[in-house]
Task: inverse folding
């Protein structure tokens, strides 16, 4: 809103209005606003939730310190949602298709999580929203994102082309520069709709979803989008649930999400800047630089929430926050074509999910074979395994965050390993 207002004022030569054209300035303002909302208004929301007795009911799992958490206000995810949505609405270009998709993602999964928390807390139903409805919500979002990225004319990538093979020369962009020998050179590019994405360790770091349906022959270019939409649904569902499983210790989900968000912000900035993208030899995605504004709000919201969610937590985010965080990360990565880096970047979420899958599968297998179910870990998700081994909760969270930082660095480094 402020972006559009100051864009109009800039046309009237209003002093200082031109600063809103710069992503760096708006990103800084977004972070500050997000932190103010989460830190100042967050306290008021926590007090309100406490007065409404919206507290956490802790199951007896034999974990150290779990009884102390009983009665801690839940549904704190509304603080995160407000701290993301309000600054984004204020400082982002609301005509940008990518910003629109991120706003839809935030509100949609926030609503799904809120419904789950509402049923648990107000309806006193421990089961919450049925799993099939959660999955349905995630699948619907995946469809919306996938189809929008396929159909919107504003969604393109810029590819290098041979100008002699282009019939419509008006669609070709020319960038002048110098090669390694200092000689002048021209790079010819064109914005095209494509199903290519980034994948580490491959030549040019690019993978086309058309490869998955190559067996269909001449129809592969059209069916590539079907493969893309299916992969989008799977990624949104997996990462959203992974973040939900990670939200079991004070500050764990928010801390790791902030690290992931910062990494995605760097990737979005270089992917949306033609000069940096060309220098780093990575995919250039026109207009994606605006996503830096959104991720700035995301980082500010998660860090601000950690002020109250760090050990010992004064509030829990609940599914309102955790489902939204995972979905936001997934959709953001898909938009900037870095979704295949998620197993590395979101390694903490991935391991948490795998630990549960292995535990359940092995238990069922051994129960069927031996009559008694056996376990691989003492408890899952895996952060509870370390709790059972006697590690203090703050130490587990800190070490998981260190691993998250390491994975973030590896993710960025993979772009130069081919």
Result:
């Amino acid at each position: 809103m402020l972006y559009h207002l100051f864009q109009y004022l800039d046309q009237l030569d209003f002093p200082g209005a031109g600063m809103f054209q710069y992503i760096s300035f708006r990103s800084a303002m977004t972070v500050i606003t997000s932190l103010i909302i989460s830190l100042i208004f967050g306290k008021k929301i926590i007090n309100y939730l406490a007065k409404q007795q919206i507290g956490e009911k802790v199951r007896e799992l034999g974990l150290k310190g779990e009884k102390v958490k009983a009665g801690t206000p839940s549904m704190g995810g509304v603080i995160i949602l407000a701290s993301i949505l309000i600054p984004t609405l204020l400082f982002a270009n609301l005509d940008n298709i990518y910003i629109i998709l991120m706003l839809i993602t935030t509100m949609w999964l926030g609503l799904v999580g809120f419904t789950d928390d509402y049923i648990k807390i107000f309806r006193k139903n421990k089961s919450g929203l049925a799993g099939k409805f959660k999955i349905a919500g995630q699948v619907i979002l995946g469809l919306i994102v996938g189809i929008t990225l396929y159909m919107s004319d504003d969604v393109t990538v810029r590819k290098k082309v041979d100008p002699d093979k282009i019939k419509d020369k008006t669609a070709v962009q020319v960038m002048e520069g110098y090669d390694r020998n200092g000689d002048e050179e021209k790079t010819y590019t064109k914005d095209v709709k494509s199903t290519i994405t980034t994948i580490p360790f491959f030549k040019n770091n690019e993978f086309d979803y058309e490869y998955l349906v190559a067996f269909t022959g001449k129809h592969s270019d059209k069916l590539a989008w079907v493969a893309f939409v299916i992969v989008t649904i799977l990624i949104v569902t997996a990462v959203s649930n992974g973040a939900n499983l990670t939200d079991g210790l004070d500050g764990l989900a928010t801390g790791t999400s902030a690290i992931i968000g910062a990494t995605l912000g760097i990737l979005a900035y270089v992917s949306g800047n033609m000069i940096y993208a060309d220098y780093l030899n990575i995919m250039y995605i026109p207009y994606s630089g605006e996503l830096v504004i959104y991720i700035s709000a995301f980082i500010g919201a998660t860090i601000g929430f950690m002020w109250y969610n760090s050990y010992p937590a004064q509030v829990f985010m609940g599914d309102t926050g955790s489902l939204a965080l995972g979905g936001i990360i997934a959709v953001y990565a898909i938009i900037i074509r870095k979704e295949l880096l998620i197993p590395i970047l979101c390694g903490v979420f991935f391991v948490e999910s795998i630990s549960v899958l292995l535990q359940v599968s092995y238990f069922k297998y051994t129960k069927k074979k031996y009559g008694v179910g056996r376990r691989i870990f003492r408890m899952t998700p895996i952060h509870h395994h370390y709790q059972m081994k006697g590690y203090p909760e703050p130490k587990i969270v800190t070490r998981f965050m260190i691993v998250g930082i390491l994975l973030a660095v590896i993710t960025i480094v993979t772009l130069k390993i081919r």
Summary: Residues 81 and 107 are 8 Å apart (CA to CA). Residues 23-51 form the longest helix (29 residues). The first strand starts at residue 157 and ends at 160.
